[in-house]
Amino acid sequence: MSKILEEELSCSPFEPNDDILKLDCRELDGSDPLGVHEFIHKYAVKSHNSRLSSIYVVRYKGMIVACFTLSMFLITSRRLTDGDQVKDIPIKQYPAILLGQMCVDKQYRSRDIGKYICKFSLGLAYNTSKRVACACLVLHTDEKRRDYYVNKCGFSRAKEEPNDKTIWLYRRVA
Amino acid sequence: MTEKELVLEGKDAEKFEDDFTRDLSIEEKKELDEAEELYKKNCKL
User: Fold this and answer.
1) What is the pLDDT of residues A3-59, one digit of tens each?
2) Nearest to B4 among A11, A71, A116 (CB)
């Protein structure tokens, strides 16, 4: 399937008449490993309205083909584990923006819409960092998508979660 | 629901903090400028 060019896509904050419930965020086998489909269909609008996360919608030829959320995030870094904490080693905190709940409709996958979303979010995070402290853009995904985000979107590994086979990735904006 | 904090410890923390001690490369800065351009151009805020 051919890639969709950046120029053919647009992105805007969610509006009440944007029908994101038509999006099918599940895997081809119908599973929903990261819970994105469930989130979009059950909680997204409520979460957006209460400002717990902000939904953005992506359009292609006037149709909504993807959506994602952005929210404030914090990375806390401790060089030593809790038991080993010593006074000389400070805990560092890095304000960030979390790119979460990314859903590209089944019909539009493998056309680089994910790359567009990452680039847009990176631009938003970078722009924000000029006015509000923000050190990086963070993404939480599963292991099988890791190579795509690292190799095509420039993210670096932050931490693996072996229990659910997910991985945290980040990209610096400062 | 979405988590709002990531805690890094041990080697993960070390690697992450070390990455923030370096200057961004010219290529990385260029990519940030391009991404910001895309954001400004496409987002109808």
Assistant:
1) 999 999 999 999 999 999 999 999 989 999 999 999 999 999 999 999 999 999 999
2) A71
Q: What are phi and psi of A120, to 5 degrees?
A: -60, -45
Dihedral angle over CA of A94, A95, A99, A100, nearest 10: 90
SS3 track for A91-132: CEEEEEEEEEEEEECHHHCCCCHHHHHHHHHHHHHHHHHCCC
Is A83's pLDDT higher than 80?
A: no
- Tokens of residue A121, six digits: 């979010």
**Would you tell me which residues 100-139 of chain A have a C-beta closer than 8 angstroms to some C-beta of chain B?**
100-101, 116, 119-120, 122-124, 126-127, 135, 138
Quote the Cα angle for A65-A66-A67, to 5°: 145
With CB atoms and an 8 Å threshold, state whether B1 touches A100: no
Extract the tokens encoding A90: 């400070």
- Chains A, B: CB contacts within 8 A come to 116
Contact by Cβ (8 Å): A32, A71 = no
Nearest by CB to residue B16, choosing from A11, A123, A158, is: A158
